[in-house]
Amino acid sequence: MNSSTKLVVAVVSCWPAAAFAYIDPGTGSLLIQGLIAAIAAAGVTLRFYWHRFVGWFRRKPVRRAGPEQAPQGSSETRQEELRP
């Protein structure tokens, strides 16, 4: 027997034929609580990363090629204005 056949035989032999399971109200409320917690966690995570999330859908600003200009009021601009 090869290894995949052994694995199938092991899984089938451990699998129960019929399970007469009962999900009581405590288990149902636990499942609902888990669902509510997952929704709340997703909301909080979305709130923390909202700007990154929205940034995926916004257009990127187009950068123009060319020399960078000094910002208004910087010392380089003032020196250029004072030169004769």
Summarize the structure.
The protein is an all-alpha fold and 84 residues long. 60% of the residues lie in helices and 0% in strands.
Low-confidence stretches: none
Looking at the structure, what is the overall shape?
flat
Helix content: 55-70%
Mean pLDDT reading? 77
* Content of β-strand: under 5%
Series of H and E elements:
HHHH
Cα(first) to Cα(last) distance is 95 Å
Using only C-alpha atoms, the radius of gyration works out to: 33 Å
Structural category:
mainly alpha
Number of strands: 0
Please outline the major beta sheet: none
Structure characterization notes:
- With 84 residues, the protein is mainly alpha-helical.
- The chain contains four helices and no strands.
Outline the secondary-structure elements:
Layout: H1 3-14, H2 25-48, H3 50-55, H4 75-82
List descriptors.
single chain; 84 residues; mainly alpha; 4 helices; flat
